[in-house]
Specification:
This protein is α+β, with helices and mostly antiparallel strands. The chain contains 23 helices and 11 strands. It binds S-adenosylmethionine. S-adenosylmethionine binds next to strand 3, helix 11 and strand 8. This is SET domain-containing protein.
Amino acid sequence: MKEEEERIQNLRSKATKLLLRKEFHDSIEAYSELISFYHNQISNTHQNLDPNILTKLKKSLCLALCNRAEAHLNLQEFPQALKDCNEAARIENTHFKTLLCKGKILLSLNQYGLALDCFKEASLDPHELENSDTLNGYLEKCIKFESLSRTGAFDISDWVLNKFQGKPPELAEYIGPIEIKKSDISGRGLFATKNVDCGTLLLVTKAVAIERAIVPQSTFQDSKEQEQLDMWKSFIDKVMESAKKCVRTRDLICKLSIGENEDHLEVPDIDLFRPEAQERGFLDKKIDKEKLLNILDVNSLVEELISAKIQGKNSDVHGIGLWILASFINHSCDPNVRRSHVGDHVIIHASRDIKACEELTFAYFDVFSPFRDREEKAKNWGFVCKCKRCNLEKGVCSNQEMMEIEMFLGKGLEMGGVVYRLEESMRRWMVKGKGKGYLRASFWQVYSEVYESERLLRKWGSKIPLMECVVDSVVDAEGSDERIVKVLMRGLKRKGHYGNGILEMEKAMKLGRGLYGKIMKKQTLKTILFQLGN
Ligand SMILES: C[S@@+](CC[C@H](N)C(=O)[O-])C[C@H]1O[C@@H](n2cnc3c(N)ncnc32)[C@H](O)[C@@H]1O
């Protein structure tokens, strides 16, 4: 008997040491042995009742379960961690350490309301005053996150102003007025459930996994490709790891498209993606590597590089990630939402006014390029783009005149001449409304060079449309984009309307909200707009 007691005493101190040394896998093993021992003892003791021994055993079991939960939590094995905490709580429902651990797990699972209940309950323990600072920290965080996840009232101003450097702001997951429905473009898509205006926040969601690497522009092509391949491989491993750890993640990943027969795919209920749905029965689906590769091929997103370059972000940093709910958003060459990457979260907001029941689309690749370039990029993604803009431009682009305009571009014809020819052709082809905006966006590079050159403006000014007019039509067709805002702000500066032309500034502010969403302070947005115009 003495020997057994000694063995258990040693096992207990071994498990504790391993936990303190952060050797979580080994500590889980040691605690599991300890937990089995207590389970056996309790069922034996139940037969030869000694209430004191039983109480002592149950206390020890509660502590061992709670410590094993802590180890699982550190390995981000949330379901196992939660299971241990729930068993510990059934033994002693006011156990401080268990409540603290369960609160931390629920916080990691974005279940802020339930986490708050745990921390509140823990704060009632009069014996744990020395832990009150830690507890207050969690309470404050929970209250903030709970409100953010309900209201979407985020503020990323300081971070944007700091050119996206330093620690990103802490974000909570948020699902705005959106739903999943069958799409006319392909398979399923995300749709607005009510009218929203430019800049409205629609979705904030955290990546299942993300992998970043620094690949300097100057790196040789071969090494660049190797670095990207290595990045892709470790990204796949990370997603596999997350999927292995959590039934819910695995089940939700399995709902994603592999790019084939999309029109036959089930349309999942958006509520499944809410953190509160954690407890709903998710199917323990198997996911083999080949299926996962296909899913990642179709749904992974790179952290946006074009806007990163324009905003002066470090464009040597490349990131790839999987954001499950955002994966239901189809591509369009005339998108109405934009994504911003903040830490491991992706933020989706309206880049123009959107009507209820309208499908939300963003650009998978740069859409400020001619039809043939975009066709090639969509092909690399594995689809033929069915958006309105491609359908319209397909017809125009087979036109001999359009081919000539594209050819002139390559042959160094003066940019003013290209703009002039394109505008004249559109007039003759009777291209109207959005069509004009689409084609101007296709040749935006050319337009922007003309509008930014005093010399070209002097030469071609009266033969080509006003910059403001072209900006309006491209914004109408494409929504907000840094490149348009840049040209607009520089134009306003030249005309002396910078900061004092009220109407112009109102327009610029609306475009700014389209760029970063309404989650920026007005004053910060103004500063950013001025920076873009310099
Ligand atoms: C990230 S998924 C988008 C959601 C997908 N429609 C679904 O049902 O799960 C990407 C896939 O959607 C389809 N897709 C997205 N945008 C498209 C577009 N503009 N035209 C045609 N197919 C598109 C392609 O099959 C692409 O591989």
